Each structure stands twice: as structure tokens, then as C-alpha cells.
Amino acid sequence: MNKYIFNSSDSIGIVANDAGAANLILGWIKEQKNLNLYFCLSGPAIKIFQDEMFFKENLDLEETINNSSVIITGTSYKSMLEHNARIYAKKNKIISIAVIDHWVNYEDRFIRACKKVLPDIIWVFDEFAEKIAKNIFTETKIEAYENFYLKNLVRNIKKIEKVKLNSETNILYVLEPIRKKSIKKTPFEFEVLNFFLSKIKNLKSKNNLKIRLRPHPSEKSEKYEKWMKANNNLSLSITINRTLEEDIAWADIVVGYESFALVVASASSKRCISSKLPKEKNANLKIKNLEYLRDFNYIL
After folding, report:
1. Domain of 26: which CATH number?
2. What is the model's pLDDT at position 218?
């Protein structure tokens, strides 16, 4: 089945909230030429696009779609922005393309208040996502694209990697808000973070360990200040004004619960470890070399 072909007469509305889809859309845009773009962004997507030369103005949803012949949207779990965009596009007979950025909860992305609104076309960016999407959305056109975002990240990481001291092991922990109830009073991500730290403390290592925390794009570093102060006896730091490429290039090992950053790290030939708790199901990430911290007993 042929892909939708954009031409110079198309006006393209970009509607996005979450970081995952925003990064994939941005990677695709950078590979194109002479696009007429209009933007309606919210949440982390604003920061992702704001430094780009082609992003001049953030419009409201109605104005964006009224100026567009095609819209490309993210598929956030909670934000109503992209869902409303697809409703508006359908009513006005505007072509609607939706970007799926992960491997889970595909149908839920298109349902709000028990109402399902599918786009005309779904974009995916790897073979696993394509297979899942085709099995679920049998009546919707599925188009697979190269993951330009991931490709560019890996290229940049390789450019800035430096030779490290053999006596040190750098561990990057990629944080993320986890939509799961904790058995304790703290958010579940802190339960997982404490598990990570307890494991690290009990593991023997031939090198000195340096640990750097990287907050999720939707989070502020202040969220973790109290936790860091309570564990100031360790070599802990938190990322401030560093890019994902810089953090992964610095790391020897990248640890996370189920973050897409682990996919980037794996593509960059880093050792990748999930901090999923004991008895939890394995991560949905499509990484062949993914290890699990819960399986570690002696040496890191």
C-alpha cells in the first residue's frame, strides 16, 4: 500500500503534547523540504519544538486546523488536545495522521469518554510497532517510517563520546513518572528508585560508581531533591541543562524502568538495565540485550 505523498500545496498542522510522538514528528520534519507547517503544541512538545528555526508561532487548535489540509498528531494518554484535533479534522474532512511512539495501549490512545476516534493514517517507526498496529487497526492505513529521531540521536552520541577512566563506571538512571499504584505513600517511581539504590548498595563493583539521574521531560528536577538529600552519601548528581545525547554519551550503563531512553542507549551500544521490581512482568521495550536489575546478586 502506497504512503501518503505530501506536496508543496499541502498545509500541515502539527498537534502534539507528549515528548515521544513530538520527537518522532520532529525527526520526520527535519528530513523533509519545503513544508508549510502550522503548530498547536502543549506540554513537553512545546520545549521540543521551540528551538527549531521553522517553529515560529504556537496557534490554538481551531486556527491550526483551519489553516491545514493535513494534520499530524501525537497520541497522548491523558491530553485531550490530539483527540480533539482528530474529531475536528474528521468533521471538516481534513486528512488525519496519528503517530504511535511505543508498543503498548494502542487502542486506548484513541478513546476518550468511551468514544473512539481513529485517524485516516497511523504512522509507526519500527517493525514491532507496525506488526502490532496492523493486528489491531485492521481497517486503518498503517505507514512505517524510518526512526529519524533515533538515528540522529545515535549519531550525535557517537560524536561526543569520550574515553573514560578504567577506574570509574558511570550509571545514568533515566527517570519517568510511572502510572502505577505504590504500596507505600510515595509515588511508584520512588519505590522503584529505592529498589535501584538498594541493589546498587549491595552489589560489588570493581570500579567506583558515579550515578546521574535524568528527569523525564514532563518532570522538574525539584521533584527528586528531597530524595537526593536523603542519599547524599553516594556519588549522586542530577541532570540540569544536558541533552539526552550528552547523558547517554557519558554513561557506561543506562538504567530505567521502561523509558524509551533505554532504546536509544541500546542503539548506541550501551549496557541497558531495567529497574522493574521483582515479580513485575518484563518491560515492553523491544531491546534484545535488556537486563534486569532484580536478577543481579553480586557484581555489576
Report:
1. 3.40.50.2000
2. 80
pLDDT of residue 204: 67
My answer on whether 138 and 216 are in the same domain is: no
Domains of the chain: total: 2
CA 6 to CA 79: how far, in whole Å?
A: 27
Phi, psi of 109 (to 5 degrees): -65, -25
- Residue 6 in domain: no
Over the range 43-61, which residues count as b (16 or more CB within 10 Å of their CB) and which as e? bbbeebbeeeeebeeebeb
pLDDT value at position 34? 86
Cα–Cα nearest to 97, from 142, 129, 55, 133? 142
Instruction: Mark whether 272 and 180 lie in a shared domain.
Output: yes
User: Is 21 part of any domain?
Assistant: yes
pLDDT in tens, 139-166: 999 999 999 999 999 999 999 987 776 7
Residue type, 197: L
Q: Which value, to the nearest 10 degrees, does the dihedral of the CA atoms of residues 114, 117, 123, 125 take?
A: -10
Q: Which grid cell sits at 170?
A: 558511570
Q: Which domain does 59 fall in, by range?
A: 11-146
Residues 169, 106, single domain; the answer is no
Secondary structure element (H or E) that encloses residue 210, with its range: strand 208-214
Is the separation of the CB atoms in 195 and 293 below 8 Å? yes
Q: Which amino acid, one-letter code, is at 8?
A: S
Domain final residue pick, 146, 163, 191: 146
What's the CA gap between 97 and 46, in Å, rounded?
A: 19
Same domain for 112 and 211, yes or no, is no
Q: How confident is the model at residue 201 (pLDDT cuts 50, 70, 90)?
A: confident
- Residue 227 burial class via C-beta count within 10 angstroms: exposed 0-12, middle 13-18, buried 19 and up: middle
Residue 13: in which H helix or E strand, if any? strand 11-16
Report the pLDDT averaged over residues 44-62.
89
